Amino acid sequence: MPSPPDDCLFCSIVREGTYVRKEKGFVAIEDINPKADVHLLIIPERHVDSFREIGEFPAREAKRMLEFVADTAREAGLIDYRVQVNVGRSAGQTIFHLHWHVLGSHTHHADLSAHAETAVEVL
Ligand code: 5GP
Ligand code: ZN
What we know:
- This protein is an alpha+beta fold.
- Helices cover 20% and strands 20% of the residues.
- Zinc ion binds next to α1.
Protein backbone atom coordinates (compact mmCIF):
# COMPACT_ATOMS: atom_id res chain seq x y z
CA MET A 1 0.00 0.00 0.00
CA PRO A 2 1.46 3.46 -0.87
CA SER A 3 2.51 5.58 2.12
CA PRO A 4 0.58 8.79 2.84
CA PRO A 5 1.98 12.11 1.66
CA ASP A 6 4.26 13.79 4.26
CA ASP A 7 2.29 17.02 4.12
CA CYS A 8 -1.22 15.65 4.71
CA LEU A 9 -3.08 18.03 7.06
CA PHE A 10 -5.49 15.38 8.35
CA CYS A 11 -2.68 12.87 9.02
CA SER A 12 -1.07 15.50 11.27
CA ILE A 13 -4.39 16.33 12.94
CA VAL A 14 -4.93 12.62 13.66
CA ARG A 15 -1.37 12.40 15.08
CA GLU A 16 -1.26 15.55 17.19
CA GLY A 17 -4.49 17.51 16.88
CA THR A 18 -7.24 18.18 19.37
CA TYR A 19 -10.40 16.16 18.93
CA VAL A 20 -13.91 16.24 20.23
CA ARG A 21 -13.90 12.43 20.19
CA LYS A 22 -11.42 9.65 19.59
CA GLU A 23 -11.56 5.91 19.26
CA LYS A 24 -8.93 3.47 18.08
CA GLY A 25 -8.33 4.38 14.44
CA PHE A 26 -10.64 7.42 14.18
CA VAL A 27 -11.02 10.97 15.43
CA ALA A 28 -13.78 13.57 15.25
CA ILE A 29 -12.94 17.27 15.06
CA GLU A 30 -14.91 20.47 14.65
CA ASP A 31 -14.77 21.91 11.14
CA ILE A 32 -12.77 25.15 11.14
CA ASN A 33 -15.35 26.74 8.82
CA PRO A 34 -18.71 25.34 9.99
CA LYS A 35 -21.59 25.17 7.52
CA ALA A 36 -24.15 24.25 10.21
CA ASP A 37 -24.67 24.74 13.98
CA VAL A 38 -22.85 21.46 14.44
CA HIS A 39 -20.28 20.58 11.79
CA LEU A 40 -17.95 17.74 12.67
CA LEU A 41 -15.42 15.90 10.57
CA ILE A 42 -14.77 12.22 11.11
CA ILE A 43 -11.25 11.30 10.07
CA PRO A 44 -9.81 7.78 9.92
CA GLU A 45 -6.19 7.31 10.96
CA ARG A 46 -5.62 5.21 7.85
CA HIS A 47 -4.75 7.56 4.99
CA VAL A 48 -6.63 7.07 1.75
CA ASP A 49 -7.00 10.00 -0.61
CA SER A 50 -10.76 9.77 -0.97
CA PHE A 51 -13.88 7.64 -0.65
CA ARG A 52 -12.94 6.04 -3.97
CA GLU A 53 -10.37 4.00 -2.05
CA ILE A 54 -12.85 2.78 0.61
CA GLY A 55 -11.97 -0.79 -0.41
CA GLU A 56 -8.55 -0.37 1.26
CA PHE A 57 -10.27 -0.56 4.65
CA PRO A 58 -10.71 -4.02 6.13
CA ALA A 59 -14.44 -4.76 6.39
CA ARG A 60 -14.51 -4.58 10.20
CA GLU A 61 -12.67 -1.26 10.21
CA ALA A 62 -15.06 0.19 7.60
CA LYS A 63 -18.02 -0.89 9.74
CA ARG A 64 -16.44 0.58 12.88
CA MET A 65 -15.85 3.83 11.00
CA LEU A 66 -19.54 4.08 10.07
CA GLU A 67 -20.52 3.31 13.66
CA PHE A 68 -18.11 5.99 14.84
CA VAL A 69 -19.87 8.48 12.53
CA ALA A 70 -23.28 7.56 14.00
CA ASP A 71 -22.02 7.48 17.62
CA THR A 72 -20.33 10.87 17.23
CA ALA A 73 -23.52 12.43 15.88
CA ARG A 74 -25.53 10.91 18.74
CA GLU A 75 -23.05 12.12 21.36
CA ALA A 76 -23.12 15.58 19.83
CA GLY A 77 -26.85 15.60 20.57
CA LEU A 78 -27.98 15.31 16.97
CA ILE A 79 -31.10 13.37 16.02
CA ASP A 80 -31.57 14.47 12.42
CA TYR A 81 -28.38 15.28 10.57
CA ARG A 82 -26.59 14.97 7.26
CA VAL A 83 -23.54 12.82 6.56
CA GLN A 84 -21.59 13.93 3.51
CA VAL A 85 -18.45 12.84 1.73
CA ASN A 86 -17.11 14.99 -1.08
CA VAL A 87 -15.28 12.85 -3.62
CA GLY A 88 -12.92 14.68 -5.94
CA ARG A 89 -12.12 18.33 -6.53
CA SER A 90 -15.13 19.14 -8.69
CA ALA A 91 -17.42 17.65 -6.02
CA GLY A 92 -15.95 20.01 -3.43
CA GLN A 93 -13.19 17.88 -1.91
CA THR A 94 -10.35 20.12 -0.75
CA ILE A 95 -8.48 17.82 1.67
CA PHE A 96 -7.33 14.59 0.09
CA HIS A 97 -7.57 12.34 3.13
CA LEU A 98 -10.95 10.60 3.43
CA HIS A 99 -13.29 12.32 5.89
CA TRP A 100 -17.01 12.38 6.65
CA HIS A 101 -18.89 15.61 7.29
CA VAL A 102 -21.60 15.44 9.98
CA LEU A 103 -23.89 18.48 9.76
CA GLY A 104 -26.84 19.22 11.96
CA SER A 105 -28.59 21.46 14.40
CA HIS A 106 -29.75 20.90 17.96
CA THR A 107 -32.99 22.70 17.27
CA HIS A 108 -34.06 20.44 14.41
CA HIS A 109 -35.01 16.91 15.27
CA ALA A 110 -37.45 14.22 14.28
CA ASP A 111 -40.46 15.68 16.14
CA LEU A 112 -40.05 19.07 14.52
CA SER A 113 -38.89 18.05 11.11
CA ALA A 114 -42.34 18.12 9.54
CA HIS A 115 -42.41 21.87 10.23
CA ALA A 116 -38.77 22.78 9.98
CA GLU A 117 -36.87 24.19 7.07
CA THR A 118 -33.82 22.19 6.13
CA ALA A 119 -31.38 23.06 8.88
CA VAL A 120 -28.21 22.38 7.00
CA GLU A 121 -26.83 24.16 3.99
CA VAL A 122 -26.18 21.79 1.12
CA LEU A 123 -22.44 21.92 0.47
P1 5GP B 1 -13.72 18.88 1.97
O1 5GP B 1 -13.92 20.21 1.30
O2 5GP B 1 -12.39 18.26 1.58
O3 5GP B 1 -14.86 17.91 1.82
O4 5GP B 1 -13.68 19.17 3.52
C1 5GP B 1 -12.56 19.72 4.16
C2 5GP B 1 -13.06 20.43 5.36
O5 5GP B 1 -11.96 20.64 6.22
C3 5GP B 1 -13.66 21.81 5.05
O6 5GP B 1 -15.01 21.86 5.49
C4 5GP B 1 -12.76 22.78 5.83
O7 5GP B 1 -13.49 23.83 6.43
C5 5GP B 1 -12.10 21.89 6.86
N1 5GP B 1 -10.77 22.29 7.26
C6 5GP B 1 -9.77 22.73 6.44
N2 5GP B 1 -8.65 22.97 7.16
C7 5GP B 1 -8.95 22.69 8.45
C8 5GP B 1 -8.19 22.75 9.67
O8 5GP B 1 -7.01 23.11 9.72
N3 5GP B 1 -8.83 22.39 10.82
C9 5GP B 1 -10.14 21.97 10.82
N4 5GP B 1 -10.65 21.65 11.99
N5 5GP B 1 -10.88 21.91 9.68
C10 5GP B 1 -10.29 22.26 8.52
ZN1 ZN C 1 -3.55 11.80 5.42
